[in-house]
Amino acid sequence: MKAQPKASHYINGSHVEDEQGEPIDVIYPATGETIARIHAATPNIVELAVEAAVEAQRGWARLRPVERGRILRRAADLLRERNEELARLETLDTGKPIQETLVADAPSAADALEFFGGAVAAFNGEFVDLGGSFGYTRREPLGVCLGIGAWNYPIQIAGWKSGPALAMGNAMVFKPSENTPLTALALAEIYTEAGLPDGLFNVVQGLGPVGEALTNHPRIDKISLTGSVPTGRKVLAAAGSYMKHATMELGGKSPIIVFDDADIENAVGGAMLGNFYSTGQVCSNGTRVFVQSGVRDRFLERLLERTKSIRIGDPLDPDTQMGPLVNRAQHDKVMAYIALGQSEGAHLLAGGGVPALQGFDTGCFIEPTVFGNVTDTMRIAREEIFGPVMCVLDFETEDEAIARANDTEFGLSAGVFTTDITRAHRVIGELSAGTCWINTYNLTPVELPFGGVKQSGIGRENGLAALGHYSQLKSVYVETGKVESPY
Ligand code: NAD
Predict the structure, then answer these.
(1) Catalytic: 249?
(2) In sequence order, what are the residues at sequence separation of 6 or more whose Cβ sits closer than 8 angstroms to the Cβ of residue 77?
(3) Relative to the CA of 212, which ligand 1 atom is closest?
(4) 364 is known as an active-site residue
(5) Distance from Cα 197 to the centre of ligand 1, integer Å
(6) Is the distance from CB of 274 to CB of 433 less than 8 angstroms?
(7) pLDDT in tens, the chain (487 residues)
(8) Ligand 1 pocket: which of 151, 177, 220, 409 to mutate (most atoms <8 Å of CB)?
(9) Atom nearest to 148 CA in ligand 1
(10) CA-CA 20 to 30 A from 484: which of 15, 126, 187, 313?
(11) What are phi and psi of 409, to 5 degrees?
(12) Of the residues 100, 114, 178, 249, which is catalytic?
């Protein structure tokens, strides 16, 4: 299987190669096969991309928002038309099953382009009455925005960042994760085909040092990172030293609280979605599942039954529900956490091993895993594992559940399952998390802002909030009378 792109980078509307850059092999995680080889950006490539973006941005910002939006909406249509081929490419790049990539990846990027392409024309400043005189605010673009992606939702992340950035009149340089470099290049081609002027969406490849070079580049005005907390700290510190704008979408260890009165099938389904979708490689996953003691046994019984019937295997088979982890390093990290959980005294209730899959014995697969009897101090309950590992914890009272759910450095997401509507809203109001769900989990429609509090990040993607984060306000005072000067 090959998925070699035309070139490593996409700059100023064209594919660009520079073989001087460090080679990066792109591996299909289901088999370990090398499907492409690209090269990390050299300093020259970084410079070319930033220059192209600076050059293109001024003219783009002068267009009417509705004109910019029209191009984004055309790109959204092309993403949907090409969904099958993009889904296949995303599956090869990430190992995620095709039944997921068909519905959750390019379609989510398309939603972002469509939403921001439409919403931007109504996202204006305000008129301020100053009693005769008046003021107004202008929403102005920031300039050149840098997007840095993680590997779990490559094209979605590229769309969630470039959609609002471009809609607001910015240009973007996007650096995908070195693990999943392919679909951002496909998005760049689609933008060009949709009529986006050259230089507005540039893709440069590379590892951390390329991200760092771009972050520190003086012509970059804003950085939006999706990645881990340690990387977020470095990038935010660098952004701060230049006073650049920054949005950080980082990791989590989010709680799901299941009360005695919950619909158990829904709660089990939500907890499984929040732990096993994308083989558990989702930042907002609810990996600490707090279950009230009255429903504990029923919850576990149904959870284990349903977990054991998950179909794991060939990601390109439309019946497959779970694929491999993204690479060997992530696989080994998750296996080490499973061993750690056992040595910490948690009960391994399901999974925990590497499945025997004919034809895929060199893949990075791990069985969906459930730990019971987990306590708050165990490392498996405190650290982000980023794999298909669910921790189930027992609780007695609402106050206890809230206090324990909040006892973490993270604050990305939280979920509550209950049929008591007053309790649902009361508990959500007490949880320290940026993105919450009541009686469902992990749905992230573009209309709703998404992001974290505490160590899980700052800023928001999606919703009108994202347009705010890709723009700055200019205040204008208009005098309609005489200047009253004491001099
Ligand atoms: P990572 O932090 O290792 O890498 C993220 C990106 O940052 C990559 O493109 C990487 O090359 C780049 N990078 C690394 N060092 C850098 C530096 N010093 N300067 C600039 N860029 C640098 O994360 P990952 O392993 O790719 O992704 C998994 C993590 O991402 C998890 O913690 C997950 O929770 C998080 N994540 C968060 C969200 C969200 O929206 N909150 C979404 C998906 C993933």
Answers:
(1) yes
(2) 110, 194
(3) 19
(4) no
(5) 29
(6) no
(7) 899 999 999 999 999 999 999 999 999 999 999 999 999 999 999 999 999 999 999 999 999 999 999 999 999 999 999 999 999 999 999 999 999 999 999 999 999 999 999 999 999 999 999 999 999 999 999 999 999 999 999 999 999 999 999 999 999 999 999 999 999 999 999 999 999 999 999 999 999 999 999 999 999 999 999 999 999 999 999 999 999 999 999 999 999 999 999 999 999 999 999 999 999 999 999 999 999 999 999 999 999 999 999 999 999 999 999 999 999 999 999 999 999 999 999 999 999 999 999 999 999 999 999 999 999 999 999 999 999 999 999 999 999 999 999 999 999 999 999 999 999 999 999 999 999 999 999 999 999 999 999 999 999 999 999 999 999 999 999 999 999 999 9
(8) 177
(9) 9
(10) 126
(11) -75, -15
(12) 249
> Does ligand 1 come within 6 angstroms of the Cβ of 466?
no
Please give the order of strands across the beta sheet that includes 347-350.
347-350, 369-372, 389-395, 288-292, 255-258, 413-417, 435-438
- Helix intervals (H) in 344-462: 398-406, 421-430
178 CB less than 6 Å from ligand 1?
A: yes
Select from 153, 178, 214, 231 the residue to mutate for testing ligand 1; criterion: most ligand atoms less than 8 Å from CB.
Answer: 231
Q: Considering only CA atoms, which of 1, 56, 294 is closest in space to residue 197?
A: 56
Burial class of residue 309 in the structure, from the number of CB atoms within 10 Å of its CB (0-12 exposed, 13-18 middle, 19+ buried): exposed
DSSP bridge pairs for 37? 25
Ligand 1 pocket, residue 383 CB under 6 Å: no
With a 6 Å cutoff on the Cβ, whether 148 touches ligand 1 is: yes
Q: Is the CB of 470 within 6 Å of ligand 1?
A: no
Q: Where are the alpha helices (DSSP H) in 32-105?
A: 43-62, 65-81, 83-94, 98-104
Ligand 1 proximity of 386 Cβ (cutoff 6 Å): yes
Residue bearing tokens 């998390």: 433
